[in-house]
């Protein structure tokens, strides 16, 4: 490293705590490799190129939702309504597109109507959450639990509880079947979004404000940071990213599904937290979300291949959140 | 009520009820109590007298078991006491009434009285018995207090009564009262004094903390003076004058060297007219601060001085009156709007209100300037420019070690305050509001903070210093306002700006009456 001088200037104790922090940073990647090797020895298919691509593709969806959660977890919040919002956006976009198709317009404009309807629905959900939390002072838990039910209600009403069929082929081609130099669309989109979000978090005023608000909201307010506006934007961004993910999943299934979101809320929180995004606020980012998503995906992929029951997998997912939070506590404690 | 049986007048021959010898208590670096002695006899009212920070609160917290002393002997009722806890203290008859209330706001008065010592049979509460005993106690005390009323529906004075009643439920041998009359009316105060007399007759020892000379005159048997955490003297209340007490309390401090500040008062930068904040926290205050001078605001804790400057910055809702900045009317809507008008505020509690502790120094310094072109263009941070600007600022402020990427949480109190000061240099500001600027920092850093203020004044800024530390505001300010109960009690300047004058305003009404 180029500058050894400051490192030498540090006291011994802080050198030790830095070493500990390094250990924490490497704990998850090591655990990931161990997990992967364990599943690979249990079942040789784990290592096959087809399965690796499958893992990568699956990770890209989970990572997108985990990034969405990370944005609000950084502010000390979370979004329980993410899953139902995904269902709602799926159904809403599908309904918009099928309506447009019957009017006989060209596929490109139908596609645009679908994308815009979906993203707008997502942004509206996030704005609603943000306003309730930041302006009315309701806790993120209660606010997003409320919109959880609202979103389920809307999704089920719009679709009458049945899958919405009849979207243009172009939609699935663009968001699912398409590829760039052989890389599937889902991965390409997630990588692009991840890079943009990373820049937004680390190099914009909004990103900087998110971390400061999450670390100490009172100090942020005293320093003149518009805390409420930052929070509203965070929830709007979270739900918009979730909406993008919802459109990608809808393209994969080929229809608007009122149950598409399922357990996504919790899965996304689990991925973000286990990757090192702190529920205490102010820590984490795109890196922790992607790492956590990879971990959760490898775990469920391995469990699928080794035929571990789906309901047992739910038990594991729930336990992961708890373990992630306990480890986060321990990590903060070492500082 | 079952109280200690020892009937009669103070007995000087036998061992005192409470005897503390050489009690010391250190909090992370600061010596809060330095070899303090105190003895309280049964049936005596013993006043603890001293300035803010003299160690009175720490001492009563030691006596009531909240803090364990580091060294010293603690004897109570003829027994050596070790490892005292608040529960044990209550069990052996030490009953404190603190200034900060220990009541649960959502419970009723009687539920609070029996909190943690509920009467029950086989796990079922004996509500009737508790109500009967609560009413009997309140009647005996002569308080106008409804046992079934919820605490958060009560006025502050009634909460104070409930607090006293709570302390007197059960066996009491030593009662500790910390400024008990602060929120009582004249009539209620009279009741309390009658009660105190009754308790003394029953042989209860009383430790009484108060700044009010009149109460000390009316009640005290003996007075112990503390200063800077040290024991000064114990005096017979009948044989000491008010002036002697004030002199003992203030003493002459071996304190930091204050820089000579070349005040050059210019135009009025801040003018406040009939300003009110909250429900009487600040009421009808008029004051002004000019460019090129330090304006001091002195006052006891809770007198509203902090809320006054916070209202100017936009942190407290203004309920009446007006603020003018540089002659223009200003309605403080938000901190950012105030910063844009050139007003900066440095909070007293830096960890809670100032800093994002896990974030680097650089981000904490630029925090108040994230709306400026020099740090931001089209929403993107200019991180290179940020480093180039903040590095020299922190070098100039003598940050040690001078690495602006370290998290603020690793810094000492003095360095943390420097991070706050660094913010002052990131944008154009003309008005600086300092709230307790030297709390929690060491002597060396204090001097640097004062030097910093001096440079601000030399550059023509208006500096307002709010402080509970009298020597500090006295030495720094060109003009000094004294606040008392939310109002300006005096404006002192030049030769009139003395410690005695300020102190006399803290106790205004009482000294006036004592002199009459």
Layout: helices, strands, pairs:
The complex is a heterodimer of chains A (335) and B (516).
Chain A: H1 5-9, H2 12-42, H3 49-73, H4 82-102, H5 107-135, H6 140-159, H7 169-177, E1 179-180, E2 183-184, H8 185-203, H9 205-215, H10 217-222, H11 227-253, H12 264-274, H13 286-305, H14 310-333
Antiparallel strand pairs in A: 1-2
Chain B: E1 18-27, E2 30-40, E3 45-49, H1 56-63, E4 71-76, E5 79-80, H2 86-91, E6 94-97, H3 109-113, E7 120-121, E8 124-125, H4 127-141, H5 156-168, E9 174-178, H6 186-201, E10 205-209, H7 213-219, E11 222-227, E12 230-236, H8 242-250, E13 268-277, E14 282-290, E15 294-298, H9 305-313, E16 318-325, E17 328-330, H10 335-340, E18 343-346, H11 350-354, H12 361-366, E19 376-377, E20 380-381, H13 383-396, H14 413-424, E21 431-435, H15 443-458, E22 462-467, H16 470-476, E23 479-484, E24 487-493, H17 499-506, H18 508-515
Helix pairs in contact in B: 14-15
Describe the structure.
The complex is a heterodimer of chains A (335) and B (516). Chain A is mainly α. Chain A contains 14 helices and two strands; from the N terminus they run H-H-H-H-H-H-H-E-E-H-H-H-H-H-H-H. Chain A has one domain: ABC transporter involved in vitamin B12 uptake, BtuC (Orthogonal Bundle), CATH 1.10.3470. Chain A has a two-stranded antiparallel ribbon with strand order 1-2. In chain A, strand 1 and strand 2 (183-184) form a beta hairpin. Chain A is globular, with a radius of gyration of 21 Å. Chain B has 516 residues and is α/β, with parallel strands linked by helices. Chain B folds into four domains: 15-93 and 171-251, Rossmann fold (3-Layer(aba) Sandwich), CATH 3.40.50.300; 105-169, no CATH class; 262-342 and 428-516, Rossmann fold, CATH 3.40.50; 354-423, no CATH class. Chain A binds chain B through residues 6, 9, 14, 203-209, 211-212, 215-216, 218-226, 282-283, 335, and chain B through 315, 334-336, 338-339, 345, 347, 352-359, 363, 367-368, 370-371, 376, 379-381, 383, 401, 403, 409-410, 423.
């Amino acid at each position: 490293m180029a500058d050894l001088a400051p490192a030498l200037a540090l006291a011994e104790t802080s050198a030790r705590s830095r070493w500990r922090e390094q250990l924490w940073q490497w704990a998850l990647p090591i655990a990931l490799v161990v997990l992967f090797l364990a599943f690979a020895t249990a079942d040789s298919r784990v290592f096959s190129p087809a399965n690796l691509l499958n893992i990568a593709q699956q990770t890209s969806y989970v990572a997108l939702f985990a990034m969405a959660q990370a944005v609000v977890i950084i502010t000390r919040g979370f979004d329980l309504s993410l899953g139902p919002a995904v269902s709602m956006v799926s159904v809403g976009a599908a309904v918009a597109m099928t309506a447009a198709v019957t009017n006989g317009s060209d596929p490109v404009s139908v596609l645009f109507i679908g994308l815009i309807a979906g993203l707008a629905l997502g942004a509206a959900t996030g704005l609603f959450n943000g306003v309730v939390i930041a302006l009315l002072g309701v806790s993120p838990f209660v606010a997003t639990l409320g919109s959880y039910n609202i979103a389920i209600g809307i999704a089920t009403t719009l679709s009458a509880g049945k899958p919405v069929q009849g979207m243009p082929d172009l939609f699935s081609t663009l968001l699912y079947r398409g590829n760039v130099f052989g890389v599937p669309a889902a991965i390409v989109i997630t990588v692009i979004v991840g890079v943009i979000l990373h820049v937004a978090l680390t190099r914009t005023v909004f990103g900087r404000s998110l971390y400061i608000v999450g670390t100490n909201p009172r100090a942020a307010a005293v320093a003149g940071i518009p805390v409420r506006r930052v929070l509203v934007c965070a929830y709007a961004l979270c739900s918009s990213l979730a909406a993008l993910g919802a459109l990608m999943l809808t393209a994969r299934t080929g229809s608007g599904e009122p149950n598409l979101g399922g357990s996504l809320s919790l899965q996304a929180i689990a991925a973000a937290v286990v990757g090192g995004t702190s529920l205490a606020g102010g820590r984490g980012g795109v890196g922790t979300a992607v790492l956590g998503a990879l971990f959760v995906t490898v775990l469920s992929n391995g469990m699928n291949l080794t035929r571990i029951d789906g309901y047992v997998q739910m038990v594991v997912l729930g336990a992961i959140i708890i373990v992630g939070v306990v480890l986060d506590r321990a990590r903060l404690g070492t500082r | 009520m079952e109280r200690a049986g020892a009937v009669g007048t103070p007995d000087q021959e036998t061992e005192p009820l409470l005897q503390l010898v050489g009690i010391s208590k250190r909090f992370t670096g600061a010596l809060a109590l330095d070899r303090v002695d105190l003895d309280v006899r049964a049936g005596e009212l013993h006043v603890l007298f001293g300035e803010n920070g003299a160690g009175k609160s720490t001492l009563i917290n030691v006596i009531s078991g909240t803090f364990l002393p580091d060294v010293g002997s603690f004897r109570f009722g003829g027994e050596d006491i070790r490892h005292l806890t608040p529960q044990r203290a209550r069990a052996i008859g030490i009953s404190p009434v603190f200034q900060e209330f220990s009541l649960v706001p959502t419970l009723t008065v009687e539920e609070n009285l029996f909190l943690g010592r509920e009467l029950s049979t086989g796990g079922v509460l004996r509500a009737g018995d508790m109500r009967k005993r609560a009413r009997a106690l309140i009647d005996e005390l002569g308080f106008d207090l409804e046992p079934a009323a919820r605490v958060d529906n009560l006025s502050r004075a009634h909460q104070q009564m409930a607090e006293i009643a709570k302390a007197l439920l059960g066996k009491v041998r030593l009662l500790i009262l910390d400024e008990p009359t602060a929120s009582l009316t004249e009539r209620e105060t009279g009741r309390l004094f009658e009660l105190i007399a009754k308790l003394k007759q029953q042989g209860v020892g009383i430790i009484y903390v108060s700044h009010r000379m009149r109460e000390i005159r009316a009640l005290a048997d003996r007075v112990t003076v503390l200063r800077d955490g040290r024991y000064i003297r114990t005096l017979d209340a009948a044989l000491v004058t008010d002036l002697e007490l004030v002199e003992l309390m203030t003493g002459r401090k071996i304190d930091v060297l204050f820089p000579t500040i070349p005040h050059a008062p210019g135009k009025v930068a801040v003018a406040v007219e009939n300003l009110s904040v909250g429900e009487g926290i600040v009421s009808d205050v008029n004051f002004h601060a000019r460019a090129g001078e330090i304006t001091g605001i002195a006052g006891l804790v809770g007198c509203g001085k902090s809320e006054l400057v916070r209202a100017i910055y936009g942190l407290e809702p203004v309920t009446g009156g007006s603020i003018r900045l540089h002659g223009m009317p200003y309605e403080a809507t938000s901190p950012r709007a105030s910063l844009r008008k050139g007003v900066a505020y440095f909070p007293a509690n830096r960890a809670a209100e100032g800093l994002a502790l896990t974030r680097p120094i650089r981000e904490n310094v630029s925090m108040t300037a994230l709306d400026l072109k020099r740090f931001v263009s089209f929403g993107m941070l200019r991180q290179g420019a940020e480093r180039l600007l903040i590095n020299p600022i922190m070098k100039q402020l003598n940050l040690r070690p001078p690495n602006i990427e370290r998290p603020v949480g690793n810094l000492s109190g003095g360095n943390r305050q420097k991070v706050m000061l660094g913010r002052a240099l990131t944008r154009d500001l003309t008005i600086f509001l300092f709230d307790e600027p030297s709390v929690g920092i060491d002597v060396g850093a204090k001097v640097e903070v004062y030097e910093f203020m001096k440079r601000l004044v030399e550059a023509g800024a208006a500096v307002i210093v709010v402080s509970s530390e009298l020597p500090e505001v006295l030495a720094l300010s060109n003009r000094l306002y004294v606040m008392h109960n939310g109002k300006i009690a005096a404006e002192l300047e030049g030769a009139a700006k003395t410690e005695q004058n300020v102190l006399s305003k803290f106790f205004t009404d009482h000294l006036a009456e004592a002199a009459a």
